[in-house]
Amino acid sequence: MNTKTNNTLATATNGSSLADILERVLDKGIVIAGDISVSVGSTELLSIKIRLLISSVDKAREIGINWWESDPYLSSQSNSLMEANQKLLDRVASLESEIKALKSDGYEYHTNGQSPNNSNNNGHNNGKTWQ
Question: pLDDT for 16-30, tens place per residue?
């Protein structure tokens, strides 16, 4: 009697497709951590700490990681924040040019309320004056 047996090699991915493995990793999450240190003698020259988390967005939110929601470069608010930032930069530049114009006209800014040429300030503007 001749019998044939089918010996198959069992592997970790036996019966699993790449999609199944990816779904399992994203569902559970995976953390990879490592430290690299470069030293000469007892002097540490370089230290790198690596922390990598691979998970789905839902799993990340579940464990309290959601930095992408408040990052202006990754959210829809980035354009409005960039516009507001540009307006502020333009306003600062305008104020700086006004200060330069006042200085070129001979005005001086004094924080003690006293001008070297004029000691009659009467305490206005909290001791800060353009004269």
Answer: 788 888 888 888 888
Contact (Cβ atoms closer than 8 angstroms) between residue 38 and residue 45: yes
Predicted local distance difference test score (pLDDT) of residue 121: 47
Question: How many H-runs (helices) and E-runs (strands) does the chain carry?
Answer: 3, 4
Which parts of 3-128 fold into alpha helices (H)? Answer: 18-28, 57-62, 78-104
What does the alpha-carbon distance between residue 33 and residue 51 come to, in Å, rounded to a whole number?
5
Q: Which two tokens stand for residue 66?
A: 């959601």
Whether the CB-CB separation of 102 and 92 falls below 8 Å is answered with no
Let me know: does 49 contact 38? Beta carbons within 8 Å.
no
Rounded average pLDDT over 82-100: 92
Q: Could you tell me if 29 and 59 are in contact, meaning their C-beta atoms sit under 8 angstroms apart?
A: yes
Would you say 110 and 128 are in contact if contact means Cβ atoms under 8 Å apart? yes
Task: Pick from 60-64, 80-84, 88-92, 116-120 the range whose average pLDDT is largest.
Answer: 88-92
Of 111, 114, 113, 107, residue with least CA distance to 131: 107
